[in-house]
């Protein structure tokens, strides 16, 4: 049985007499024990989807199932999930131990059991020895761990985390990403993680649902999302992408020939759906492109252009190359061997890539 299922879930709000469709029909299945992320720009419906899983909102349409059971009408405290908020929501006047034990005390769990579970949880979140501190005596990262511990101590079957690292600075956020992943592996429960940060989602998730404007545009593992974005939106939202407009000239087997705006002809994987005459967008990631001063040979896709910008970025160089039709292509070049650049501003260059590294 899947841990969580959304079956064509819709959520409409009425605000000042106007209907806002926050979620427009989302279907997805989250497996038990999975680290699952909802990723998308601000306002795309991530929090609303999460709140319907937690039970803070009722769907306008569709069904939410938790561990196979339709939870329509089941209040949040009777669902086997816990939510962790970005704002931590800790009790400022209570120390760490009491913050974590609070829920168990309210549920009248026996003292010995509370001691055992709070102790265990402190260990998991790496806060042993800090139990007497007040929230304001702790760093943001530590407060976030307390908030996490307070949810974990209830031993929910799934934990819902809504942008939990949003308030932390970059270094700490990256550290906590690794920590969260470790904790999830250690406790083995389902994590549903909401973020607008693509790097965060790629780092931690087993699978990612990329949302845009109330809908899921792609649901796949991080590699697939990055290497094979299903839509133009996903390609643009995840990482840096180059978009090249062109027209399909001919189709042969599983490849097709594309005429680009600047006149170059490149071979592309057919991708099942294209036919001669179709206008399409070709996407190639900057790190898949090789830049050279001489025309490359072999079975590669090649376009010609002029370097308009070179930026030295330490581990790699970034080039901006302008094609004859004005299209701008970003190329990343690893600084593996020496720090010299292949081309300078104003140089004519050839850009090449393996056809399988481009997608339509
Ligand atoms: P995200 O978490 O992805 O940033 P939300 O789920 O918070 O997005 O919001 C999705 C859309 O629904 C937004 O346009 C937001 O303004 C709207 N919305 C969210 N909550 C309410 C509400 N209580 N009343 C009216 N509109 C809302
Ligand atoms: Mg949100």
From TrEMBL:
<dbReference type="InterPro" id="IPR050093">
    <property type="entry name" value="ABC_SmlMolc_Importer"/>
</dbReference>
<dbReference type="Pfam" id="PF08402">
    <property type="entry name" value="TOBE_2"/>
</dbReference>
<keyword id="KW-1278">Translocase</keyword>
<comment type="function">
    <text>Part of the ABC transporter complex PotABCD involved in spermidine/putrescine import. Responsible for energy coupling to the transport system.</text>
</comment>
<dbReference type="GO" id="GO:0015594">
    <property type="term" value="F:ABC-type putrescine transporter activity"/>
</dbReference>
<keyword id="KW-0813">Transport</keyword>
<keyword id="KW-0472">Membrane</keyword>
<dbReference type="InterPro" id="IPR005893">
    <property type="entry name" value="PotA-like"/>
</dbReference>
<dbReference type="GO" id="GO:0043190">
    <property type="term" value="C:ATP-binding cassette (ABC) transporter complex"/>
</dbReference>
<dbReference type="InterPro" id="IPR008995">
    <property type="entry name" value="Mo/tungstate-bd_C_term_dom"/>
</dbReference>
<keyword id="KW-0067">ATP-binding</keyword>
<dbReference type="InterPro" id="IPR013611">
    <property type="entry name" value="Transp-assoc_OB_typ2"/>
</dbReference>
<dbReference type="InterPro" id="IPR017871">
    <property type="entry name" value="ABC_transporter-like_CS"/>
</dbReference>
<keyword id="KW-0547">Nucleotide-binding</keyword>
<comment type="subunit">
    <text>The complex is composed of two ATP-binding proteins (PotA), two transmembrane proteins (PotB and PotC) and a solute-binding protein (PotD).</text>
</comment>
<keyword id="KW-1003">Cell membrane</keyword>
<comment type="similarity">
    <text>Belongs to the ABC transporter superfamily. Spermidine/putrescine importer (TC 3.A.1.11.1) family.</text>
</comment>
<dbReference type="InterPro" id="IPR003439">
    <property type="entry name" value="ABC_transporter-like_ATP-bd"/>
</dbReference>
<dbReference type="Pfam" id="PF00005">
    <property type="entry name" value="ABC_tran"/>
</dbReference>
<protein>
    <recommendedName>
        <fullName>Spermidine/putrescine import ATP-binding protein PotA</fullName>
        <ecNumber>7.6.2.11</ecNumber>
    </recommendedName>
</protein>
<dbReference type="InterPro" id="IPR017879">
    <property type="entry name" value="PotA_ATP-bd"/>
</dbReference>
<dbReference type="InterPro" id="IPR027417">
    <property type="entry name" value="P-loop_NTPase"/>
</dbReference>
<feature type="domain" description="ABC transporter">
    <location>
        <begin position="4"/>
        <end position="238"/>
    </location>
</feature>
<dbReference type="GO" id="GO:0005524">
    <property type="term" value="F:ATP binding"/>
</dbReference>
<dbReference type="InterPro" id="IPR003593">
    <property type="entry name" value="AAA+_ATPase"/>
</dbReference>
<dbReference type="GO" id="GO:0016887">
    <property type="term" value="F:ATP hydrolysis activity"/>
</dbReference>
């Amino acid at each position: 049985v899947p841990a969580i299922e959304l079956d064509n879930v819709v959520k409409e709000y009425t605000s000042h007499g106007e209907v806002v469709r926050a979620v427009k029909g989302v279907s997805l299945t989250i497996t038990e024990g999975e680290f699952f992320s909802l990723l998308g720009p601000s306002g795309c419906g991530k929090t609303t989807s999460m709140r319907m899983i937690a039970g803070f909102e009722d769907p306008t349409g569709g069904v939410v199932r938790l561990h196979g059971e339709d939870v329509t009408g089941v209040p949040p405290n009777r669902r086997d999930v816990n939510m962790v908020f970005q704002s931590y929501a800790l009790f400022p006047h209570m120390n760490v131990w009491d913050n974590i034990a609070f829920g168990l005390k309210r549920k009248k769990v026996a003292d010995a059991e509370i001691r055992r579970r709070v102790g265990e949880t402190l260990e998991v979140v790496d806060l042993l020895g800090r139990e007497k501190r007040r929230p304001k005596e702790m760093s943001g990262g530590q407060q976030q761990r307390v908030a996490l511990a307070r949810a974990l101590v209830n031993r929910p079957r799934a934990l819902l985390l809504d942008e939990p690292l949003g308030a932390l600075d970059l270094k700490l956020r990256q550290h906590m990403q690794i920590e969260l992943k470790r904790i999830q592996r250690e406790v083995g429960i389902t994590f549903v993680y909401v973020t607008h940060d693509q790097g965060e989602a790629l780092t931690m998730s087993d699978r990612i649902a990329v949302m845009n404007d109330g809908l899921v545009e792609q649901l796949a593992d991080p590699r697939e999302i990055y290497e094979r974005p299903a839509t133009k939106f996903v390609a643009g939202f995840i990482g840096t992408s180059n978009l090249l407009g062109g027209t399909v000239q001919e189709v042969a087997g599983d490849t097709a020939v594309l005429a680009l705006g600047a006149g170059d002809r490149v071979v592309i994987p057919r991708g099942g759906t294209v036919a001669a005459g179709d206008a399409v967008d070709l996407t190639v990631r900057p790190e898949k492109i090789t830049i050279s001063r001489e025309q490359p040979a072999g079975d590669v896709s090649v376009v010609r252009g002029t370097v308009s910008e070179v930026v030295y970025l330490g581990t790699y160089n970034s080039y901006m190359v302008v094609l004859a039709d004005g299209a701008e292509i970003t190329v990343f070049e690893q600084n593996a061997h020496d720090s010299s650049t292949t081309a300078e501003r104003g140089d004519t260059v050839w850009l090449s890539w393996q056809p399988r590294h481009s997608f339509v």
